[in-house]
Amino acid sequence: MAERLQSSVPPEILFIERCTQFLKSGGRMGIVLPDSILGSPGLGYIREWLIQNHRIIASIDLHADTFQP
C-alpha cells in the first residue's frame, strides 16, 4: 500500500496500515473507521488493498449519532 500513498495521507489510512502491521499471521482485528474510508470513490485503492491482503468478515454501517454523547 505504501507505494500508492501520496504525500498527504489521511491519518485513518496510516492507522489502518499500522494496525495491519501489528497483526500476527492468522490474527484478528476490529476497527471503527469513518464512512469515507470504505465509501469514497477516491479511496478505492484502500478497499482493493484490504480485500487483496486481508480477509474481511464484515463491514457494518452505524448511525451517524452512534458515538455522540
Description:
The protein has 69 residues and is an all-alpha fold. The chain has a domain of 46 residues. 39% of the residues lie in helices and 0% in strands. The chain is globular, with a radius of gyration of 13 Å.
List key phrases describing it:
69 residues, mainly alpha, 3 helices
Short description:
This protein is mostly helical and 69 residues long. It contains 3 helices and no strands.
Query: Percent helix among the residues?
Result: 25-40%
Straight-line N-to-C gap: 35 Å
Q: In percent terms, what proportion of residues is strand?
A: under 5%
Radius of gyration: 13 Å
Based on secondary structure, the structural category is mainly alpha
What's the overall geometry?
A: globular
| Overall mean confidence score, pLDDT | 86
The number of helical elements comes to: 3
- For the report, how would you describe the main beta sheet? none
List the helices and strands and how they pair.
Blueprint: H1 11-22, H2 35-39, H3 44-53
